[in-house]
Every structure is written in C-alpha cells, then in structure tokens.
Amino acid sequence: MDKTTVAIRDFRASLAEYIDTDAPVTITRRGRAIGLFVPLRRPSAEDLQRLEAAAAKVREALPLSADEVEEVVADFDALRRGLALSARDRL
Q: CB burial class (10 A; 0-12, 13-18, 19+) of residue 75?
C-alpha cells in the first residue's frame, strides 16, 4: 500500500481525489505531521467479524464503564488541545 504525504491546504483542495484512493495520506502543517487519513472501503463480512473480535479483545483487556470511557476521551481531547489536566486526573 502506497503512502502519500501532503500539506493540509493541498489535502483540502483535493479531498475528493484522496477519498477515491486506497492509499493512506499523511497530512502535514508546516512540514509536521498532524494527521493520517485512511480511506475506507465497504468492509466485507469477514472484515466486520475480525473488527468485532478485535473490539472484544480490547474490552476484555481494558474493561471500562461508559463513564470511564467518556473520561478517557475528555482527557485525550484536553491533552490534544494542550490543556493541563487537573491534579485529580494526573493521579
């Protein structure tokens, strides 16, 4: 699978082209990678079964309640935005 690197401005301008390809695209801003776009195709029944099996393994290895998942997502979002976590969250 080919991998392309493109500046965010060019990615936005050519989004339709990237959606129609199978190759992942690394998106950069000022030369620094900021994201990865992976176009998806309609998954086969086998793909869905593998995904469900992988999700079950993740839930087994990391059993979290819905509230804990929301907390992890909120922490990730805060860190992604460069915000400090509260003292409680750092424990």
A: middle
The CB density around residue 27, as the number of other CB atoms within 10 Å, is 19
Structural domain harbouring 26: 4-37
Tokens of 78: 């805060």
Q: State pLDDT tens for residues 10-47.
A: 999 999 998 888 889 999 999 999 999 988 877 788 98
> Is the same domain home to 50 and 32?
no
Q: Please give the backbone phi and psi of residue 30, each rounded to the nearest 5 degrees, phi first.
A: 55, 40
Domain count, the chain: 2
Taking the model in full, what pTM does it have? 0.44
Phi, psi of 15, rounded to the nearest 5 degrees: -55, -45
Based on the domain organization, do 16 and 33 belong to the same domain? yes
Token pair, residue 3, equals 């991998």
